[in-house]
Amino acid sequence: MSAIPEPEPARPWRPEDGPSPEVWTWPRSDRPTLKVWSAGAWRYASVMARQNWSDGSVYYQVEVDLRGDTTIRTCLYRWPQPGLKAARKSTSEPSRGVDERWQGNMPQGPRRA
Prior knowledge:
By secondary structure, this protein is mainly β. Helices cover 0% and strands 36% of the residues. The protein is globular.
């Protein structure tokens, strides 16, 4: 049994929490990663967004395979917690807006004759 507790997931922001959080994102191809302690192992988690709440707390929204069964889940965690570690920094600067250079085009439907 490990002495490391699994991190507690957080609930999403709600209006009664105060002003909406400041949200930072990275390009899909260059996201930072965290390690999440789950099911007795450190799991890599791709950071989708960082949220800075008005009370000064920081939350990370991540995509992670919590059980090692290839099922990817989206989780929100308050930082820091013993069951979370920084794994990899992004080489890109985070953005508060949508960077359309990093988005793909909408899929095209079948061509009509």
